[in-house]
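User: Just a sanity check before I run the rest of the batch. Below are the structure tokens for the first item. I only need the designed sequence back.
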């Protein structure tokens, strides 16, 4: 009768074979992710040129001391109202209609540009105001302003 197998010897790669296999795997990953790697290099270069990479490296090396300093500073009495209102501020930011604010900001910029390009008039009479109301752009702006004031005054 044959002897039973009590130990199995697995094939182990030599160090050179393992290195060769790892290098081939890395080459394949580089070939598959060439664009991402090049963008990452560009990002690192930009961070290095701006000095941000040095700051991030220094922070990483001394993160325990840096975090202790941040916690010590933020624990001061003057920051208490900020910390108490922080959750409400975060919820408020979630409720803001960013598209409407962007539209309003663009309109404000257009108004400022028009104001600067036209130059100030000497005086505006009551009749000038009445004539201006016939202008569709001015009428639309005044109507929007009145709607804004009505909405702001509601309880």
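Assistant: Here's the designed sequence for the first item:
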């Amino acid at each position: 009768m044959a002897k039973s197998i009590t130990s199995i010897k697995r094939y182990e790669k030599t160090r050179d074979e393992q290195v060769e296999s790892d290098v081939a795997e890395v080459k394949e990953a580089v070939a598959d992710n060439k664009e991402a790697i090049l963008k990452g290099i560009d990002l690192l270069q930009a961070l290095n040129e701006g000095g941000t990479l040095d700051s991030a490296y220094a922070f990483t090396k001394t993160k325990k001391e840096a975090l202790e300093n941040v916690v010590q500073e933020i624990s001061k009495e003057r920051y208490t109202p900020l910390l108490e209102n922080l959750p409400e501020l975060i919820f408020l930011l979630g409720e803001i209609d960013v598209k409407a604010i962007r539209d309003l900001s663009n309109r404000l910029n257009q108004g400022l540009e028009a104001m600067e390009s036209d130059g100030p008039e000497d005086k505006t009479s009551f009749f000038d105001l009445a004539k201006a109301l016939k202008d569709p752009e001015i009428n639309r702006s005044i109507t929007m302003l009145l709607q804004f004031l009505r909405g702001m005054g509601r309880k």
